[in-house]
Design a protein that fits this description.
Elements lengths: L1 H18 L2 E7 L24 E5 L22 E2 L8 E2 L24 E7 L6 E6 L9 E4 L4 H4 L18 E2 L4 E2 L1 E3 L9 E6 L13 E7 L6 E2 L9 E5 L6 E9 L11 E2 L2 E5 L5 H20 L1
Parallel strand pairs: 9-16
Antiparallel strand pairs: 1-5, 2-4, 2-6, 3-4, 6-7, 7-8, 10-11, 11-14, 12-13, 12-15, 15-17
């Protein structure tokens, strides 16, 4: 118990130190500045008001600067290390910034699509900051993300120079490894056939993945390696494929983005869906006949 208390106190001390940070404003605006830009979605429309904006801080000495998201997340408030970021990085003031906000108080019009400001800080002046704009309202329901570019000098969390002079419109077009891929029709919990079917949410919209980027996998519920289900995900998200034996089997089924198009191979993934497969027809009849065949064979040998 004492060990847990010391760990807790240590975490509080680290976060308290971070809270005393020197802060800097990061913002994207098309109002009266030298570079007039807006955050834009896949279809190049301005990002809708209310989408989540993560205020990211790199590791010490700029380690993992612009690191791709992870699926490790746990914090709802405060400054949080490893909140959908690598362990060296942290999210500053979790949940305090959304598209359209003037979180940094730079004075532009609040509630304008594609426009946002966020205050980011650290007591470690070797770290860098950036705004990560998501295509949804939380890292797990956002299919895409886009980071605000900028010079390393402007983004370094030392001095008072605001970071806002982007060379182009920040685009929310990168596949987000923290996304939990949704199924619109999960596989059945029990199948009397070796063929497994389901439907994944896919499409061409600003917050949904294309079917061509996905594959379906399965493995035994008890563990082991994942195997690719020999099934192509159709443009409407439907898939159907056969699970190999031996049977009976209790398996997990999931969807995953192919490694070639994601910044974090192996991610994003869906939830695991359990499927129980008994001895399927016509193998069930063979299973029933097998004891009789064995008995007959043994009887013949004893004659």
């Amino acid at each position: 118990m004492k060990a847990i208390q010391w760990i807790t106190l240590g975490c509080v001390a680290v976060l308290a130190t971070t809270a005393l940070a020197d802060t800097k404003a990061f913002y994207v605006t098309d109002e009266a500045v030298d570079y007039q830009h807006l955050v834009r979605m896949k279809d190049l429309t301005a990002a809708p008001v209310g989408l989540y904006v993560q205020k990211c801080v790199s590791g010490a000495n700029a380690a993992d600067d612009y690191a791709a998201p992870t699926n490790w997340g746990w914090a709802a408030t405060g400054n949080a290390f490893t909140n959908y970021l690598p362990p060296t990085c942290y999210e500053y003031q979790v949940g305090t910034c959304n598209m359209g906000d003037d979180d940094a108080g730079v004075g532009f019009t609040v509630g304008k699509p594609g426009q946002v400001s966020g205050m980011i800080g650290s007591s470690d002046t070797t770290r860098r900051g950036w705004l990560r704009c998501l295509s949804g309202t939380h890292p797990t329901n956002s299919a895409y993300y886009g980071d605000t570019p900028g010079s390393t000098t402007a983004r370094t969390l030392s001095g008072a120079t605001d970071a806002y002079q982007w060379p182009s419109d920040p685009l929310i077009t990168n596949i987000n490894p923290a996304y939990v891929i949704p199924f619109t029709q999960p596989p059945p919990t029990q199948s009397f056939s070796v063929t497994i079917s389901g439907r994944i949410a896919v499409g061409t919209g600003n917050n949904v993945l294309p079917a061509s980027s996905l594959l379906v996998e399965y493995r035994d519920q008890s563990g082991g390696a994942w195997s690719v289900l020999p099934a192509t995900v159709a443009p409407d998200g439907l898939f159907t494929g056969a699970v190999s034996g031996p049977y009976p089997r209790v398996i997990f089924v999931r969807a995953r983005v192919v490694d070639a198009v994601t910044p974090q191979p192996g991610l994003p993934i869906s939830e695991n869906y359990p499927v129980s497969i008994p001895i399927p027809e016509p193998l069930a009849w063979l299973a029933l006949l097998l004891p009789f065949a064995i008995r007959h064979y043994r009887a013949g040998r004893n004659v």
